[in-house]
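User:
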Amino acid sequence: MKKFSNLKISQIKNKLTLKEFIEIIKIIKQENTHALISNLSKDLIKKYLKTAIKSKNIFLYILKKKKLHNWICFTYQKRRLFDKRFSST
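Assistant: Predicted structure:
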């Protein structure tokens, strides 16, 4: 169980650093190749993540040890993930 002792889960409420954006985009593009989001351009993914962070209905979490290992974006209503109004409702 020791290898999990230094993991940290953080909810992103304000903003990501440039390094965190780059790491999340890398994970999306390399490890989630079948996901819809992986087919977006890097700029669109960054814009989506920024909008998700500002949303009251979407929650973004990252998992870190020394570097970012994974991320999750979830909502209680799945339509909110791609609703063009999701940042304001």
